[in-house]
Amino acid sequence: MLSRFISSTAARSTMRVATKHGMAHRTMCSSVLNSPRELMGEYDCVIVGAGPAGLSAAIRLKQLGLQNDKEVSVCVVEKGAEVGAHVLSGNVFEPRALYELIPDWKRKGAPLDCPAKEDNFLFLTETQHFELPTPPQMHNDGNFIISLSDLSRWLGTQAEDLGVEIYPGFAASEAIYDSEGRVTGIATGDMGIGKDGQAKDTFMRGYEIKGKQTLLAEGVRGSVSKVIMEQFNLRENCQFQTYGLGVKELWEIDPAKSQPGKIVHTIGYPMDMQTYGGSFLYHMNNNTVALGYVVGLDYSNPYLSPYQEFQRLKHHPVFAETLEGGRCVFYGARALNEGGLQSIPKLTFPGGALLGCSAGFLNVPKIKGSHTAMKSGMVAAESIFDTITSEDNITGAEVFQYEENMKNSWVWDELHEVRNVRPGFSKGLVPGLVNAAVDTYVFNGNAPWTLKHAHPDHESLKPAAQSKKIEYPKPDGKLSFDLLTNLARSGTNHDHDQPAHLKLKDDSVPNSLNLPMYDGPEGRYCPAKVYEYVEDDEGNQKLVINAQNCLHCKTCDIKDPSQNINWTTPEGSGGPAYSGM
Description:
Blueprint: H1 9-19, E1 38-48, H2 52-67, E2 74-78, E3 92-93, H3 96-101, E4 118-124, E5 129-132, E6 144-145, H4 148-161, E7 165-168, E8 172-177, E9 183-188, E10 191-193, E11 199-204, E12 207-216, H5 223-231, E13 243-252, E14 262-268, E15 277-284, E16 288-296, H6 306-313, H7 317-323, E17 327-337, E18 348-349, E19 352-354, H8 356-359, H9 370-388, H10 401-407, H11 410-417, H12 429-442, H13 483-488, E20 502-504, H14 509-518, H15 522-525, E21 531-535, E22 541-545, H16 555-559, E23 565-567
Parallel strand pairs: 1-2, 1-12, 2-7, 4-14, 12-19
Antiparallel strand pairs: 3-6, 4-5, 8-9, 9-12, 10-11, 13-16, 13-17, 14-15, 15-16, 18-19, 20-23, 21-22
Helix pairs in contact: 2-4, 2-9, 9-10
């Protein structure tokens, strides 16, 4: 298990102060909340997010420093309690970028020990399955079935060995700017504020961490990235981003059923023919399987629950035959980008850049984004290196070369080739499959057109009165589980006595729009039971936000019909505790 990487004595001592007390008392000194932030440090580069993209950037910067005999200071802040705690993915991993970054990764013990051996692509009906040809993008020769959270931990150790400073438990709450509006670093969130907004006796003001360049590698729908994209109008010349929600479980199964290296992907049941969705079942080592379900967040029926669809799917014979006699050990969920090349924003801004899923480099038909995220981090590092090591000591420059270098990389070629596949499914499963086949086999990804996405995901819901209610079966406690039982397997945890990090822009919207128009969809699209409508003392329905349940998947920020929910960072170290995911 990776250490917390708290390398400065000051940071360690403040973390102890923030946690050593018992029940906190309120302080009435409001000036504490508005006191100046302490400067934690100044670096050549500050990176937000210790996932594959951010850590690859950090490692590459340090490698370039060694190669050019230049000292480069790099700081990575991570909102999870440890590196990898908030990282969740399928994951069948393509090692192309890893070979480029750390050619001797095998010797160094990277956790890639389950080679992909067998690809299966199935169409499901309610009780049967039919084998389909595996699309070329989904062939996995040379790839590995892995835990991305474990790979991130390993990348963290490689970065630390090179001298990168990594601070888990420090959530970047906002960017900081100079007098000319250029980004000069980030501020971490305050800790020790009670639900009532008053400082507790454990209060600790957030830090400022400054850098010549700030690289945002927060993952999908990052809170700082979202603000930066709006502030600098980075989406001016691209389409809106589209998303899916992935729900995942990790199971220990009967050794007699274990087939390490076997990969199964499915389409069809339990989705209707108009809704984009598919599943995966990956056999790993040690009698373990990873399975999950991804639903496109452009679905239209407000009664649909991605979590419940996944639970229903596990009773299909393809899954039940593998899972029966086993036990579920972990659960988690996260949103993923599905917009592809059309939805990639401008990648740079004064003082920094967007990396990985903060930008949206997922290859949807390939069902892979870790390799492209890592490559983007490497390209960003190579692009900013001369700027941050210049004798001119430049802070806040916009390194336009990063976007040009990305467009000249294999990432851009890969995304261009598949750009028309996902948009084709906006018309339904059959038209989508036909479009994908024509684009892939006839045009080889080089069709003389580029399809556009139909509409943002939050605009896709139909009114409840025009939609069919979905009655989901009761979980049996063996293959399927109620949501709170599964949620406990995620390890998610937040201090109950803090302001909710899920903020409503207008408190009246749930009762004026979401409930009467869509019958309260929040409680169904959320995979963590954060949102529920309950009766108050007068018999009226009221939205309750159980923020402590949050898995940081960002689905609410994406899917809410009026974009009334704003996901912000909670106190550092809160959230899921993924391992093996």
